[in-house]
């Protein structure tokens, strides 16, 4: 079972994900239908970042996954050489 700390961290991560999802959805889907002179536009970045930020996050994720897989494979290869 999860401890109290695990549950609080999990709840925080779910809340953060929900906030990011709501913000991004409003930014990408709702904002284009609101007049560009409306005051709500000052709370959002320019639309070009709506593609650039997720693209950069995805590339960083792929980079870190690749580095992790490379590290694990090299470590396992070194351990098997020691065993022989």
Automatic annotation (TrEMBL):
Cellular component, GO annotation: dolichol-phosphate-mannose synthase complex; endoplasmic reticulum membrane
**Where's it found, cell-wise?**
Endoplasmic reticulum membrane
From the UniProt record, give the pathway where this protein acts: Protein modification; protein glycosylation
Q: Which InterPro entries match?
A: DPM2
| One GO process term, biological-process aspect | dolichol phosphate mannose biosynthetic process
**What is a GO molecular function of this protein?**
enzyme regulator activity
Entry keyword set = Endoplasmic reticulum, Membrane, Transmembrane, Transmembrane helix
Q: Could you confirm whether the keyword rRNA-binding appears in this record?
A: no
- Membrane topology field: Multi-pass membrane protein
Report the family membership.
Belongs to the DPM2 family.
Please describe what this protein does: Regulatory subunit of the dolichol-phosphate mannose (DPM) synthase complex; essential for the ER localization. Regulates the biosynthesis of dolichol phosphate-mannose. Regulatory subunit of the dolichol-phosphate mannose (DPM) synthase complex; essential for the ER localization and stable expression of DPM1. Part of the glycosylphosphatidylinositol-N-acetylglucosaminyltransferase (GPI-GnT) complex that catalyzes the transfer of N-acetylglucosamine from UDP-N-acetylglucosamine to phosphatidylinositol and participates in the first step of GPI biosynthesis. May act by regulating the GPI-GNT complex.
Q: What is this protein called?
A: Dolichol phosphate-mannose biosynthesis regulatory protein
Q: Which organism is it from?
A: Muntiacus reevesi (Reeves' muntjac)
């Amino acid at each position: 079972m999860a401890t109290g700390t695990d549950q609080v961290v999990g709840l925080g991560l779910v809340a953060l994900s929900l906030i990011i999802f709501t913000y991004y959805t409003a930014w990408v889907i709702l904002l284009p239908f609101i007049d560009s002179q409306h005051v709500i536009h000052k709370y959002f970045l320019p639309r070009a970042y709506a593609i650039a930020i997720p693209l950069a996050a995805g590339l960083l994720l792929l980079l870190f996954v690749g580095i992790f897989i490379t590290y694990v494979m090299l470590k396992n290869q070194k351990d098997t050489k020691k065993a022989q």
